[in-house]
Amino acid sequence: MSAGIGCRDLRVHAGGRELLSVPELHVASGRTLAVLGPNGAGKSTLLRALGLLSGHRVSGRILLDGRPATRSTMRHAAVAVLQRPILRRGTVAANVISGLRFRGVGRREAYERAQPWMEALGLGPLAGRDARSLSIGEAQRVCITRALAVGPQVLLLDEPFTGLDSTTRADLLADLRAALTGRPTATILVTHDRQEAVALADDTALLIAGRIRQHGPTAEVLDHPGDTDTARLLGYTNLLPPALTGLARTLAARPEHTRLVLDELSGEGDGHTVTGTLRRTVALGIVTRVDVDTAAGPLTCLHPGDVPAAELPPPGAEVRVEVRHARELASAGRDEPAGVR
Questions:
Q1: How far is Cα 185 from Cα 32, in angstroms, rounded to an integer?
Q2: Where does 29-66 show beta strands of DSSP type E?
Q3: How far apart are CA 62 and CA 97, in angstroms?
Q4: pTM of the model
Q5: What is the C-alpha separation between 202 and 288, in angstroms, rounded?
Q6: 102-124: b or e for each residue (b if 16 or more CB lie within 10 Å)?
Q7: What CA–CA distance (Å, rounded) separates 103 from 179?
Q8: ABC transporter domain location, by residue (predicted)?
Q9: By the 8 A CB rule, do 299 and 280 touch?
């Protein structure tokens, strides 16, 4: 393995149950990996195991620059930022330099090294403020800036954007992406939000039930789910089995790529058209959600909100649904046949 962090034959057990099994994983220096999965998939378990922070029984090898890592080497190489900001008493600046101070850096040098990071992450105007007066978004900026100021070889991010409003989250993601660009840091982001993976990660691994089901460049992974489980995780909730389409494999599509055929001309595109019964319509502001029951299960369509409700068929009506931009799945989910659930 090249420079960075990784593992081989990693397994985590607790209470006689295997929580995680990862045969091999590597995050090269200068790259960011998003570990994307649903709640309970083992994302944080993986992060803690890689950082040698786990309280569970862990087997296998954790590698740092291709060599077996120890708690001592990992403690000096890695910094973790958790979901809930952890701040010390004192000013914002004092919190930012605390990581450097713990590593034996003198106060003056610590301030000098931290100053560019505070400016890059927008903390310059807040440097003298009491850290206890900060908002959650500001507090998380302090935690991320503190981690970056250390110049870590490995940065571990455990859902640090959870609980932030959309604007704060978008700004922080953009600032962090800019701060990491060109840096020799191997970064691992644990998240359940695919938009965070798009914004920050070069590569993405899909973790389901303690197993990595897909791993590769972020755009490729997010746009090409391999089976029904990964399709649902990535928002491809409309699954059309061969019995419904007549094709050889199951198709998957996101709701925004699925809509009712409201006139004869609109159903003559390159998409796949299926029939069903309209169950309900729900106005969601800029879009209207339309749920349709088909012979193989439910489909969800999203129509532009400017389509008047009067132009949509009533519940119980027989309708046609056009599915655009569908992806062909290579296989069914691990524990189920291909189909719509």
A1: 8
A2: 32-36, 57-64
A3: 29
A4: 0.89
A5: 33
A6: eeebeeeebbebbbebbebbebe
A7: 22
A8: 5-234
A9: no
- What six digits make up the tokens of 329? 């799945």
- List the structure tokens of 324: 């655009």
HSE-CB for 213 with a 13 A CA cutoff: 30
- In terms of Cα–Cα distance, which of 97, 21, 111 is closest to 58? 21
Question: Which domains can be identified in the chain, with CATH numbers?
Answer: 4-223 (3.40.50.300), 231-328 (2.40.50.100)
DSSP string of 99-163, one letter each residue: HHHHTT--HHHHHHHHHHHHHHTT-GGGTTSBGGG--HHHHHHHHHHHHHHT--SEEEEESTTTT
Please give the C-alpha separations between residue 261 and each of 241, 251, 267, 315, in angstroms, as whole numbers: 20, 19, 6, 15
Residue 297 backbone zone (phi > 0: left; psi -120 to 50: alpha; other: beta): left
DSSP, res 316 = T
CA distance 71 to 89: 28
What pLDDT, in 10s, does the model give residues 210-242? 999 999 999 999 999 999 999 999 999 999 999
The token pair that represents 216 in the structure block: 């590769």
What are the pLDDT digits (tens) for 282-315? 988 888 999 999 988 999 999 887 777 778 899 9
Amino acid letter, residue 250: T
